[in-house]
Amino acid sequence: MTKAKDGSNWGVNTKLAHSGNDPHDFFGFVNPPVVHASTVLFPDCATMESGDQKYTYGTHGTPTTDALAGAVDGLEGSAGTIIVPSGLAAVTVPLLAFLKSGDHLLMVDSVYFPTRRFCDTMLLNLGVEISYYDPLIGAGIEALIKPNTKVVFTESPGSNTMEIQDIPAIAAAAHKHDAVVMMDNTWATPIYFKALDFGVDISIHAATKYPGGHADVLLGLVSANEKHWQQLEDAQTNLGVCGNPNESYQVLRGLRTMGVRLAHHQKSALEIAQKMKGMAGVIDVLHPALSDFPGHDLWKRDFKGSSGLFSFVLDGGPSRDLWRRKSHAFLDALQIFGLGYSWGGYESLAVRVSLKDRTIATGPQEGPVIRLQIGLEDTADLLADIERGLSAANDIASA
Ligand SMILES: *Cc1c(COP(=O)(O)O)cnc(C)c1O
């Protein structure tokens, strides 16, 4: 006997706590088992021939990966979700699934750099034509669509510079010409941006970030609407990039607390961003929830919240050499913020970003851009750390 559940009207934290697996499927244990599997046995030859049982082989899913994929479908409102070994694989697998030689891809210029690297190397070698477009283009994207445009790829906010894209306008233009709309939705998570409701066909997440939440897992998630699910799932089967049971379990575990963690990241990051606006040595703060940020109105229209990642422009002085010295002084003086890649964990991080790859969305030119991931520490301590960094940078003389 199991208790009936109808979670369709649940609030997001209730969904996070209760979706994915039914404890009564496994003796009532609250969490699903971590199933390590390659072989699955069939009771007889006839079943083996028909393949007519729930699980058939480890690469095609297990109770552990199903629990995670099911939970994510509940959040995204998707028809299906594939689990892949990293966030970058969550970008490359759908691109490979929907593009072939001779096709044209429209890629946002403010994209996560490794996505661009994949496009400019492997996709190009496979004979795919790629054009980069301005993240602020909105409905104007229609003018860039060619007869062979098959995919329009979006990422909002833009990587490091936080440009907000008009996703509904871009999706409407793309769909008029039968192009598939993909979005790297890692920053907002499905909690703060429910991509499929805004016309996105394929929603991509580095689960390494907030879903994992503890800087100890690499995993990617790709969710598709009904129209695109089968082609996405076939690509995963053909490529053999499947989710690992331990990582899938850890990400499901992370999802249970993602709502409360994100609320804390949001509140702390916004408080810090607001206070940084008035600090000596800060030229600008790039955070979509700040009312004077250029993309603020679009963000407010479409997003339900903001996460813990934003950037600021440091007053670097007149020369590039000084920019380098002042940003090193800022970063080296930090005691709580770690210097490292990735984000979405419980701990704060800082990194100087490079915008050298950009061709259109070249970003702020007034000084070096530094990205902050605001973790779960107390904001008073983080603010003191930032003040320490700024005063070290401000101490570097312009001479
Ligand atoms: C980190 C990140 C990825 C890649 O995730 P990995 O798990 O590190 O490969 C993809 N897209 C965005 C926006 C990211 O921030």
- Number of E-state strands: 12
Q: Which strand order do you get reading across the main beta sheet?
A: 1-7-6-5-4-2-3
State the assembly state of the protein chains.
single chain
Helix content estimate = 25-40%
Q: Provide the structure class.
A: alpha/beta
CATH topology of the largest domain: Aspartate Aminotransferase, domain 2
Bound ligands? pyridoxal-5'-phosphate
Q: Major β-sheet, in short?
A: 7 strands, mixed
Strand proportion, as a percent range, falls in 5-15%
Number of helices: 12
Number of domains: 2
Shape: globular
The appropriate CATH architecture of the largest domain is 3-Layer(aba) Sandwich
The CATH H-level homologous superfamily of the largest domain: Type I PLP-dependent aspartate aminotransferase-like (Major domain)
Order of helices and strands: HHHEHEHEEHEHEEHHEHEHEEEH
List the defining traits of the structure above.
single chain; alpha/beta; 399 residues; Aspartate Aminotransferase, domain 1; binds pyridoxal-5'-phosphate; 15% strand
Give an account of the 3D structure:
This protein has 399 residues and is α/β, with parallel strands linked by helices. Helix content is 38%, strand content 15%. The chain folds into two domains: 12-254, Type I PLP-dependent aspartate aminotransferase-like (Major domain) (Aspartate Aminotransferase, domain 2, 3-Layer(aba) Sandwich); 259-394, Aspartate Aminotransferase, domain 1. It has helices at residues 12-18, 45-50, 63-76, 87-98, 113-125, 167-176, 189-192, 226-239, 245-276, 296-302, 320-333, 379-395, and strands at 80-84, 104-108, 129-133, 149-155, 180-184, 202-206, 220-224, 282-286, 309-314, 338-339, 349-352, 369-373. The strands form two sheets. A seven-stranded mixed β-sheet has the order 1-7-6-5-4-2-3, sandwiched between helices. Helix 7 links the parallel strand 5 (180-184) and strand 6. Helix 1 runs antiparallel to helix 9, helix 4 (87-98) crosses helix 8 and helix 11 (320-333) runs antiparallel to helix 12. The longest helix has 32 residues, at 245-276. It is globular, with a radius of gyration of 22 Å. The protein binds pyridoxal-5'-phosphate. The site of pyridoxal-5'-phosphate has 14 residues, from helix 4.
